[in-house]
Each structure stands twice: as C-alpha cells, then as structure tokens.
UniProtKB/TrEMBL annotation:
The chain crosses the membrane at residues 20-40, 52-69, 89-108, 117-135, 141-158, 179-203, 215-235. SMART domains: Bac_rhodopsin. It is found in: Membrane. This is Rhodopsin. It is a multi-pass membrane protein. The keyword rRNA-binding does not apply. The keyword ATP-binding does not apply. Belongs to the archaeal/bacterial/fungal opsin family. GO terms for molecular function: photoreceptor activity. Keywords: Chromophore, Membrane, Photoreceptor protein, Receptor, Retinal protein, Sensory transduction, Transmembrane, Transmembrane helix. InterPro entries: Arc/bac/fun_rhodopsins (IPR001425). Signal peptide: none annotated.
Amino acid sequence: MGHLTTFISLVPRMATDDYVGFTFFIGTMAMMAASAFFFFSMNDFERKWKTSVLVSGLITFIAAVHYWYMRDYWIANLESPTFFRYVDWILTVPLMCVEFYLILKVAGAKKSLMAKLIFLSVIMLVTGYLGEAVYPESAQIWGLVSGIAYFAIVYEIWLGGAAKLAKAAGGSVQRAHKILCWFVLVGWAIYPIGYMAGTPGWYEGIFGGLSMDVFYNIADAINKIGFGLVIYSLALQQSKPKVA
Ligand SMILES: *C/C=C(C)/C=C/C=C(C)/C=C/C1=C(C)CCCC1(C)C
C-alpha cells in the first residue's frame, strides 16, 4: 500500500478551475494534432507548396514541444513559463514571416522582405521579453517599443511592400495574404493584452485578473493552427487535383 500511495502522489493534482493548466493541456494536444495533419498532408502538394505546408507543420511542431515543457513547468511551479514561451516565439514567429515570403514568391518577393519582417519580429519579441522577465518595473516602456515593432509588421504586410506584391499576385494568393493579414492584426493583438494582464502598469486590473497565460495560450492556438490552415487551403487551391 505504501508503494501505491507513493506512485499515486507522483501524478500531479490539477485544480478544476486551473484554466492556465487546462489551456496548456489542450494547447499541447492541439499543436501535436495539427503537426500530424500538416506533415501527413504535405506530400499531396507540388514542390513549391510542399515547402509552405512543411513550414506550417514545423511551426505547430515546435510549439507542441514547447507546450509539453510549459505544461510540465506550470504543473510543477504554478508560475508562468516565460523562458519556454519566448524560446518558442523566437523560433515560430520568424517562421511565420517566412510563410509570407514563400507565398509571395510567385509575385517576385525578395529575401529582403523576409529579412525585414524577421528583424522586426525579433525586435518585438526581445523587447517583450525584457519587459516581461528582466525589467518588469519598466514593462510599459518595453511593451511600447515592442508594440511599435508590431505595428511596423502590420504596416508592411497591410500597406507596404508585401501588400503590393500580394496585389500583383492576385487570385487565391492575394486572398490568402489578406486572411494572414487579419490574423496578424486581430489574432496577434491578443498578445499585448496578455502582456498587460501579466505585467505592472497603468493598465493593471482592467483585464479582470485573467491570467496572462490564458491569453497567450488561446492566441497561440488561433494563430499557429489558423495560419497553417490558411496556407494549407491555399496549397490545396493551387495544386492540380491528383488523379485517383
Ligand atoms: C506563435 C506565436 C506568436 C504568433 C506570437 C506573437 C507574439 C506577439 C505578437 C507579441 C507581441 C507583444 C507586443 C506587441 C507588446 C507586448 C509584448 C509582446 C511580446 C507580448
């Protein structure tokens, strides 16, 4: 009996109102399932689109691995896994920038567009990390700098060079680009809300004490899986149907 009790106590106890833990578990499973879906479907497409769908799968796979760690970290410490969170983002967000480049290549997108978006995303994430983890007393200033980099990304894809390329590409590429733009404008805007819910500042308390990680987890599921599905359906439209 003694042995049995020891064994049982190794299984973590989860509170039924632990929404952070709940969304970490769901998030892990969703990212794993999405990765399997993208990886297994990738060979249905022509070479060019295969790469795009592969990148969709890499984004959700990298997230799945980090969610696995974050889930464990949360269970063990009931504390925000900030380190794993940002390692995940610093890998996956630049890959999302790569997706913009890959779909706009048909209209002649240059590597410099990709480099610009990646550069802005790194500024956005590094300053966000500094505000969240290193200098929380000046979280508002770091958050502001991060927000400016975020708006520069939004500008580039909605109105800047990427927008012009999307227009030149026309058809289903232009439509997919537009949907990705909406993801960045609306879906990505959930992150600064999570940041405000979890860092000190004038905005403290306006999010009703909802946990930062709940915002981040919901946003990740929407953005990573949704983004991937937009790419998947574009690849589907662009590939000739396979002869049965
Ligand atoms: C898959 C992960 C994604 C798409 C993560 C995106 C993260 C952001 C858009 C974060 C933005 C932030 C701000 C705009 C200001 C406050 C600090 C951040 C890093 C939360």
